[in-house]
Structures are given as structure tokens and as C-alpha cells.
């Protein structure tokens, strides 16, 4: 049994020296001097706030995207022992000693470094030569904008890493398809494609563009498989289910897990709570949970409640009244009812309390046992402090003349009877017999006499004038089919009223609640609400000094000053390698023109791609194998054409889907938004160069001249990289004359101190 021990155990491994060298160079270029500058650089002031909140377990909402990228940055802080104590309020502020700068910047730098070998592997999997793949990797290595963006606590390098990983994984999976379907490696690369896509979307929603590109590519490939008569129906079904599992179901599950971890980590109340519903706020430790702990769950006749508008933006507000009345006449000459004002007040106040009254009874206390209010019941809402009834009638509202005025009724002994009956409609009910619940139920109040709905119209309009203390207008809106959130309310604070006498009731309204009932919100309910807030919550877009348009990016007519040394001329800018960006634009244009030319001639049965020698790809036993540029193998024109089109679909398509959508976006744009797109465009450069060498340079002389031009061109790329490096790394500091010499375009904002 132990015979195998007679021979030594030998392990052999193939090491791709190119790949190893590129990885080392990528790490050196991104990790060198990573702690410099030891100061807040541009958007570190933004992301650093979220890292601190993670360290303190305080809940927040970032409308820029999902939480996975923020969690990765926070992981760097956690590994470095960061306690979250730093005031992220100014770009250029020096980091205190408790901030682990190297650790916070490490993950983005590693992601940026690994993009270099990923670029190499993608070109290899596209069946281009190792020489072309090496060129693509070196272009990514020497791209100044990618270097700058990956050396700080920012998300773009992480996003690009997952995008490239997804593309590489899919290409490896596809190349295994014909002869190794359902093998271990086939499953690994397919599953990794879905995982990488989910991670890309989880970092920033821009990752969704590449995810859609890969889904469309997978769909087209599967469509071609359907026409393969060698595959049985069962086999096709298995292929379809495998792709659905790996590319749709698993990414969705992983995306949900990002939010699950996010919500599990951030369990404490924080400054962003107010934009969430009362139920969400009550699920957090501290804040509203302290106030609402022990409240009764079911609203009953006699309950004392505060009503918060569900919309919650641009600010939260509660149904409110006070002793002041509407003016007899408004500034525009219209008359009012001169009844007691009802508003929506954005602060907690004793005048926010209301009593739910049974119209058929006089008592304002909860009976024993309590009689719960259900969907469809008719109630009266009595203002707790003034004891006047919530009322609306056919009088125009002060700011919304097409809506009805809402007031608390005062009997002036004139021909204007009270109209104070309201029907409770639970919007999120499960059945028509649902009980009105504290925090959990979202309700509309429909006026019985006029069918108007109680609405906080001031959330979408102007505030009331001075006579209304600049509070928000509340109106009666004619019943509509939709359920706009400004018409929906929920009970936030709640107690069972016990005092019938007014003075005792006023004391009761100021006292804390008594009963103990827990209200837990499920993860899916919290996820749905948080996801909706991320998608719909938009900060006011203001013009930024370094904002730009999508058209400025192609020619790099813009830059961003990330950091300036307080005394010297040292500074960091987001600037691309001009030679690489110009070459990428030229490559995209050449690819487009050649593709259109080939398509037109193919319609005439003229095939410009020859059937002869192609020096970059060989066919071995039906499988594509990348080989060196010195070896030549026969390749059919159909295969060569497929190679050309698939490379364009991935590289050119990747550029298009990551760039063109920005023309449709109404948001403040910056140059760094273009980095995923330009990464794909850079990969297109060696694709076009190899095609020109293989198919257009037919003679030895032309090939020699083309090689010489390539050497000169790459020298230009390297020269530009070296020239702009002081602006990418922030060192060495340059003199004013040297900085002026680097202002190659008038639109570049290079900072020069005036001494």
C-alpha cells in the first residue's frame, strides 16, 4: 500500500513569465509611495465619511450606488485598525495619526494593479498574439489616469477590476464551451463571470453596462447553439439553466447579500435616518427606536398619535396644527375660511399630536378592551392641544387654489357646518379587514363629504408665508387612482389615551409611552426601501469647478485637480496619457471604418480577410490556441472574420456601453466617469494594430516599416507617461515654469502659485 512512497512526489507547474512580470510592474506602479500625500485627496473627503460611519456602525444612505464598494473601502480601514475618528470636511486636510492611510488606499491600488495582467489575459483569450496582449497590458500600465485613480480611496479602480474580471471569465468559459462543457473549469469560469458582474454592479451602477453587454453576448452565443443539430434538446436546456443560474440568479442573490451585510453592520441610528420611513428608523438602535420603544401596535379609538408623511423628502414632516387661523384674505385677494391652520411641520412638537375619535361617541380615551381601527373605518381626528377637529371643505387652499383648504374647525355660528369625517384606507394592507398599525401601516385619509385626500402639498412646493410660520401646506386633494406618497401617512408615535379631561390630557401628551410591543422589519422590507431610496434620492446637482461634459472626455479637454501641496508646487491631477487616448480614438475610428468597408464588400462576396496565413492564431484539434507572432498557421476567412468581430464586440462594445449612456444622464459628470470606457478603448488599440500588420502589411518592407512605426509610437506613449508622472504621483514638486510647460491645452487647469 505504501509503494507510492518509493518514488519522489514531483509537482510541475507552468509559469507565464509575461503575466508574472506584468503583475509585479502593476503592483510597483500602483503601490509605490502609496501614503503620499498624507492628506485628503479629492473624493476621499466623500468616501471617507462612509468609512467612518462603518467603523462606528452608524446607518447611512449614499445615493451614488450600492454599498459593496463602500464596504471594501471600510474593510481596508478595519484591517488597518481605523476607529472612524476623523473629520472629513476639507480636501487637503492632513490625516491624523489614527488614520491608516496605506491600509485605506491598499484595496483600490491592488485592484488597479491587477487590471494590468487582466488586460493581457483578455487579449490572449480573444486569440490575439502574446505580443498584442503584452502591448495592451503595457498601455494599461502606463495610463496616467488609471494610475492616479487607483492610488487613492476611490472606487473606479475596483469597478474596472471587476469589469475586466467578468469579461476575462466569460471569454475563458466560452473558449471551453466546445470541448469541455460542464467540466469543473467550465463551471468555475461561468460562475466567476456572474460573481464578478454582481460585484461590479455592487460597487457602482456603472457596472450594470458591462453586465448587460455580457448578458447580450451570452444570449447571442446561446442563440447560435440552438442551431447546432449535434446538441439535443436536453443538452440545450441544461446549457440554458446553467447560464440562467450563473449569470442571473447567483448575481441577484449576491447583490442582495451586499445589502444584508450592509444593514447588519449599520445597526445604529444616524444622520440619514430621517429620509427613511418610521418603520425603518424604529428598527435601528437609538434615535426613533428610543422614542417608540414600548408603543402599542394597534391604533384604537381614543389613541393619541403623531402622523408622519411617508414621502419624507425634501424633508420629513408631521401633521400639525396650532391656534393661529388662516388670514381672512390672502395677498392675492382670495378669501379663506378663517379656520385654524393645519400644516405639515418638519420638527417634533407637542402640536403634532392627534386623537383618533369614534364619530358615534364623545369619549377621547381608549376603552377596555381597546377597539382597533380597521381599513375602511370612519374616524374623526381631534387635535390634541386645541381639541378642534380636522376638517376640509369647498374652500381653496392658500397656495394650491385647485385643492381644498384643510383646517381645524371653529364654529363661528355661520352657515359653514363642520365636515370632519375621514375614512381610513390602509394602502399596504393584505386584506380589507386589516387593523391600522403603528409605524407599519401606510394610510390615506379620504374625506367622506368631498372624497378629497389629505395631502402634504408643501413637500413639492413653496412654504406658507409668514402668517403660516413658513410651515408646509396641507390640502385636500381630489381622489385620484394613484397613491402618491405625499398623500400617505403613518403613525410614528402612539399611546393609548387615558385622560378625558383636557388639562390631564395635555400632561399625558408630553409623557413617554408605556406599553411594550416590538416591531421588527424583515430584511426584504428594509432592502426594498433602501434600494428605492438609493434609486430615487437625488442630491441637488450643482455645477462643480471640475465638472465636464461627455464630449470633453474623448479629446481630454478637461482635467481634475485632486490635491495641491500647501506650500510647494507639488500637485496631483487626473490626466490621461495623451498619446494613449489619441491612439485609442484613432483605433476606434479605424475599426469602425474597416468593419463597414468589410461588411459592404462581403455583401458583394468579396472577402478582404485572406484565406492564407494569419500569424497570430492557430487551430489545434478544433480548439483555438494563441501562439507567438513568429509562428504562422492557416485560418479560414470565417474564423478570421469572427475573430475581428468578437474582439470589436467586446472592446468596442465595452467602450460604447460605458460611454454613450452618459449623454442621457442628468447628473454632474466628471472625467473619472469615462475611465471604464477608455479602458475598453485602450484594449482595442492592439487589436487594430495586429489586424493592420496581419492583413494590410503584405510585404516584408511594409512589415518592417510598420514595426519601426510601432517602436516610435510606443516610445511616444512612454515619453508622455514619464512627463505627466509628477502630476500622477504628486512628486517631485515642479517649478512654476515646469508646470506652465505641462499645460498642453488651454482647458487644463494646472495650478501655479503666485509668489
From TrEMBL:
Pathway: Protein modification; protein glycosylation. GO terms for molecular function: dolichyl-phosphate-mannose-protein mannosyltransferase activity. It is a multi-pass membrane protein. It holds the Pfam family PMT. It is an enzyme of class 2 (transferase). It comes from the Eukaryota. It catalyses: a di-trans,poly-cis-dolichyl beta-D-mannosyl phosphate + L-threonyl-[protein] = 3-O-(alpha-D-mannosyl)-L-threonyl-[protein] + a di-trans,poly-cis-dolichyl phosphate + H(+); a di-trans,poly-cis-dolichyl beta-D-mannosyl phosphate + L-seryl-[protein] = 3-O-(alpha-D-mannosyl)-L-seryl-[protein] + a di-trans,poly-cis-dolichyl phosphate + H(+). GO terms for cellular component: endoplasmic reticulum membrane. CDD domains: beta-trefoil_MIR_POMT1. Belongs to the glycosyltransferase 39 family. This is Protein O-mannosyl-transferase 1. It comes from Sylvia atricapilla (blackcap). The gene is Pomt1.
